[in-house]
Specification:
Blueprint: H1 5-11, H2 39-46, H3 59-72, E1 76-80, H4 83-92, E2 101-105, H5 110-123, E3 126-130, H6 137-144, E4 148-152, H7 164-174, E5 177-181, H8 186-189, E6 199-203, E7 217-221, H9 223-236, H10 242-252, H11 255-273, E8 279-283, H12 293-299, E9 306-311, H13 316-324, E10 341-344, H14 355-361, E11 367-371, H15 377-391
Parallel strand pairs: 2-3, 2-4, 4-5, 5-6
Antiparallel strand pairs: 1-7, 6-7, 8-9, 9-11, 10-11
Helix pairs in contact: 3-10, 4-5, 6-7, 11-15, 13-15
Bound molecules: pyridoxal-5'-phosphate.
Length: 394
Amino acid sequence: MSTKQKTLAVHAGTRLTGSKAVPVSPPISVSAVSWFDSSDDLDGALDGKDYAYARISAPNTTLLEEAVAALEGAEACVAYASGMAALRSLFEAQDFRPGDRLVMPADGYGVTRALYKKLCAALGVELHALKLTDAGTQARIRELKPRLVLAESITNPLLRVADLRELAKACRDVGAAFAVDATFPSPMGQRVLELGADYAVQSTSKWLNGHSDALGGTVSGARSRIDVLRAARVLSGDVLGPFEAWLTLRGLRTLPVRMKAHAEHAAHVARRLAESPLLERVIYPGLASHPDHAVAREVLKDGGPMVSFEIRGAGRPEAMRFLEALKVGRPGPSLGDVCTLVMHAASASARRLTPEERKAAGIRESLIRVSVGLEDPDDVVDDLLQAVAQGVGR
Ligand code: PLP
């Protein structure tokens, strides 16, 4: 190499000596580009055999994808810059033609609904928003013969739990691809591929990361399906950055213990909230009063980490006063953190639905969604109930 300082400043220290050490915490590989001594090696890397350019593949993303695939029980996984990017890529991979049909929840995450509505309209695809927990849904899927059915494991924010095994059968009968957004239970609470889904979707921004410090999304499934998505990601550029991948992988390491505690706390919070006369109803799949309790016991590992409730007699002003009165729970529009996050559904997760869509979904102004954190669960309940009392002026 040249001994000229300008050249050395640019080129010295770029090669690691051949250490056999495997770091317990992976290094954050920030380089977007790698170069190769051999043009054959470079050629192979451009086909994805090694790391040439971070839009094709990147080490921290690969490690995260391997970990998520393992948790989902999938052959492969592909990671994206956000959950919405994952859902958009999933849609685009279906190769929709005008006149094709798509089925999705009428009572699911509002942003997914808004995105799919827009994508369907642009392509002339018919969007059928159904309540997937309704008795006639399987028959309707067989009748509609959609190209894609998207379900949510536990719907956002009403926490309905559909029998994925039955939906999967209907999808198989008509050759529909079946995708499940399993963000709410995480792979610890439900392995959707084992229940018959073709794709498992996660917004890793939530429980997998667990600390609200990185957005991300994944789609997992059979290698043949994921390879299509991976090839499309090289073109779309919807990649996850190395630091986000690293943070998400670090969070994921504690997912099993966190999810067990979140579900135990949520069950405790739901049971105590159910005793309050200030609440019209408490929605928790682990409570016998939940409309899908029997199904939930079969398809979920536990009642899950989320609790929703309706404040008796509350409209938007009361709900906003409630949020401002919280002292332990944080009124943040997300879920999946170690701290309790509390959200007014109509103005946050369902914000992008039209008032008619919200009404049809059953999302009222009095509906509150709680992502139960790791604080002492009695502190969480006491805080929610004092804030409810303040919200409604009691
Ligand atoms: N899916 C569900 C069920 C969600 O709740 C969210 C976000 O709240 C998303 C997908 C979108 O994920 P992201 O915010 O990572 O884009």
